[in-house]
What we know:
2 copies of one chain form a homodimer.
Chain A: H1 11-29, H2 37-45, H3 54-61, H4 65-77, E1 81-86, E2 89-97, H5 99-119, H6 125-146, H7 150-153, H8 155-158
Antiparallel strand pairs in A: 1-2
Helix pairs in contact in A: 1-5, 3-4
The structure holds a DNA duplex.
Amino acid sequence: xxxxxxxxxxxxxxxxxxxxxxxxxxxxxxxxxxxxxxxxxxxxxxxxxxxxxxxxxxxxxxxxxxxxxxxxxxxxxxxxxxxxxxxxxxxxxxxxxxxxxxxxxxxxxxxxxxxxxxxxxxxxxxxxxxxxxxxxxxxxxxxxxxxxxxxxxxxxxxxxxx
Amino acid sequence: xxxxxxxxxxxxxxxxxxxxxxxxxxxxxxxxxxxxxxxxxxxxxxxxxxxxxxxxxxxxxxxxxxxxxxxxxxxxxxxxxxxxxxxxxxxxxxxxxxxxxxxxxxxxxxxxxxxxxxxxxxxxxxxxxxxxxxxxxxxxxxxxxxxxxxxxxxxxxxxxxx
DNA sequence: TATTGTTATACTCTATAACTATA
DNA sequence: TATAGTTATAGAGTATAACAATA
Lengths: 162, 162
C-alpha cells in the first residue's frame, strides 16, 4: 500500500520496508510492556550477569540517560523491575528484575520468536539461516565502529556520467 | 559503540543496526538535498513517466499529503522542481523536475550506489546478490499487504515453558 | 572537579483538523 | 458532496541544560 513497482527496487527500499514491518510487528507483540521495545530491551538486559546501573544500561541500549529514567520509572510502576541502592556507590542505582519481570520476559521472547519466523516465512530454512548469518556479520562489523563515513568524503572525486 | 555481545544476537538487533547504519550514511550522502532522503525520493519519482500530482506522490512514498506540501515547498525554493497547473484539473498541481533537479538526481544516484557498496562490502559478490534478492523478496511480500498481523492474534494460544 | 540520577525546558516530527478552490 | 492543496494547532518523542547528591 506504499509503493509502486518502478522507483524503489533498491537496497534502501527493501531494508526500510523490512525493518518497518519488523518494528510494527514487534511493537504489536510488545504492546503490554511499558516503553514498548525499549522496555523489553531493558528487561532482557537486566537479570543477566550483575544488575547494571542506569548509566551502563543506557550506554548498552544506545539511549540517553534521561530517557532511561522515564523508562525505568514506568517499568518500576508496573512492578517489572526494582531500583536498588548500589552498596559500592551511593550515587548509583542497580536495576534488578522482579519475579513478574522475569516471567514476562520469558513470554515476550516466545512472542518475538514467532514474529521473526513469520517475517522470514517465505524463505527456505537454509536461506533463512544464510540471511541471518549475513545480517549478523554486517551488523557486527557496523557495531565495531567500521561505520565511519568513508564514502561521503570521497564522493566529490568521482564526477561522472549518470 | 552501542551494544555489548550478550543480549542482542537476534534478527531484530541486526536488522535495526544495519538499517540505522544505512540511514545514517544515506542521510549524509543526501545532506544537500532539501528534505533529505524524502527529497531524494521525490526527485527520483518525478521525471519518470507523466509528472504526478502531489497526492499521487504522497501515496507512492507513504507520506501524508501535508508533509508533501512542505517537502515540495523546499524543493521548489531550491529550484529543483516546479509546480505546474494540471490542464485537466485546476485543483491539482503537476510536479516536474527542473534541469538542476535532474542533474542533482544523477549525482545523488552515484552517491547512493557508493553507500550501498560500502555497506555490503564485507560480503562476497555472490553473497551480496543473494542478500539483495532475499531482502527484495521479503520486502515485496510485505508491501503486497501480507503484513497483516497474523502473529499477534495467535500468541495467547502457545503458552509454554521458556 | 567529575559523575549518577533527576527534573525542566525547548525543539523536531508527525498527526489532525480546518479552510480554499475546484470538481 | 467529495477532492487537491494549504495552513494552523496539538501531541509525541527527543535532545539540552540545569540541578542535587555523591565520589
